[in-house]
Design goal:
Layout lengths: L1 E8 L2 E8 L14 E4 L6 E6 L3 E7 L5 E5 L3 E3 L5 E9 L4 E8 L1
Antiparallel strand pairs: 1-2, 3-4, 4-7, 5-6, 5-8, 8-9
């Protein structure tokens, strides 16, 4: 589809031709739903996902990794506070969830 625009500004005449080429429709990428429970926790938590979980990383708010697991469940002994959990699934999707430790 081609569009031609003519504009007149400050005694200048501008002709601009815009050409739009057809492209193939992109596939929709749907992230699998990831849940973290219980949240808040006293130390043990589980990740639930439609895809298999291959890595779970517990990070402090400075993004420093404080614990790692290759399973969907983790039991941590950390100070009370807020943490980030980075979850990687078998399809390569990465999700980051907030976890509160009591």
């Amino acid at each position: 589809k081609n569009t031609e625009i003519t504009a007149f500004e400050d005694c200048q005449l501008y002709n601009v031709k815009i050409e739009v080429k057809e492209t193939q429709e992109a596939e929709a990428i749907v992230a699998s739903e990831v849940a973290l429970y219980p949240n808040p926790t006293t130390g043990a938590f589980t990740v639930s996902s439609e895809q298999a979980v291959v890595k779970v990383e517990l990070m402090n708010l400075a993004s420093q990794v404080v614990a790692v697991s290759n399973e969907a469940s983790m039991n941590v002994n950390v100070a009370a506070g807020a943490y980030l959990v980075r979850i990687t699934t078998e399809d390569g999707m990465v999700s980051i969830k907030k976890l509160v430790v009591k």
